[in-house]
């Protein structure tokens, strides 16, 4: 595919390109369309992407669906084509806090290749997208071992993902709820590629590790400032630039880390063994 540089008009993880939508996921499992909306898969050389196709399934995932639990050896890895997932950590008292979000720029299931084979986090669907690609853990491990370009791309993503988690840790400790909410909404806006999307304040509060009351007050402030509207479980981004100004630096740091992965696609030397 032809890769375009992202516009500087507004800051976003995603280049402003429109990829063909995948075929509707009917029946529940079918083969992916030739052009992937998942940017990691789309960044692979065409011959490598074609080689992976038989190992990929398209499936429909639903909001709040848990794809994997803490300590569970993943049976699959997931490459979202829209919407976004959340990687969350659950404390002993049941408090759930998000450590990172995962959209169509990335994947869930990096721990599949770790020696332990399991992550301490949940992966759950925050907002469902059109579809999601799924690959078995066995195929993923084998491709990582046998295909240099796949290994390079996933390793680059893993490095960026770790950077995002580190930034999120700093953000949670150093920045206020309004800045964190603005950061979170910007990342959600990038991933949804729509100005309005469904989201309950209760769910956002859980992901941010804040109380619902706090999120209600802070979202009310952002609404008063004309940056968002929030009605009947739907958030609308009204003033994207204003929201960027209201966010801490963590949004741009995270977006830069993720954007760099697909901008630096595997070179011609990194071929399958
Ligand atoms: Zn921050």
Summarize the structure.
It is built from nine helices and ten strands. By secondary structure, it is α+β, with helices and mostly antiparallel strands. The chain has two domains: 39-171, Jelly Rolls; 176-247, Arc Repressor Mutant, subunit A, CATH 1.10.10.10.
CATH topology tier name of the largest domain:
Jelly Rolls
Shape: globular
| Termini separation | 23 Å
How many strand segments? 10
Helix content: 25-40%
Write the topology of this structure.
Blueprint: H1 39-42, H2 46-52, E1 57-59, E2 66-68, E3 76-80, E4 84-90, E5 96-102, E6 122-127, E7 132-136, H3 137-146, H4 148-174, H5 177-192, E8 196-198, H6 201-208, H7 212-224, E9 228-231, E10 234-237, H8 240-246, H9 250-263
Antiparallel strand pairs: 1-7, 2-6, 3-7, 4-5, 4-6, 8-10, 9-10
Could you walk me through the main structural features you see in this protein, from its secondary elements to its overall organization?
- The protein is 39% helix and 17% strand.
- It is built from nine helices and ten strands.
- It is of the alpha+beta class and 273 residues long.
- The protein folds into two domains: 39-171, Jelly Rolls; 176-247, Orthogonal Bundle (Arc Repressor Mutant, subunit A), CATH 1.10.10.
- The radius of gyration is 18 Å and the shape is globular.
- The chain has a four-stranded antiparallel beta sheet with strand order 2-6-4-5. A three-stranded antiparallel beta sheet has the order 1-7-3. The chain has a three-stranded antiparallel beta sheet with strand order 8-10-9.
- α4 packs antiparallel against α9 (250-263) and α6 crosses α7.
- Mean pLDDT is 84; it is low at 1-10 and 15-29.
- Residues 171, 175, 179-180, 183, 248, 250 line the site of zinc ion (ZN).
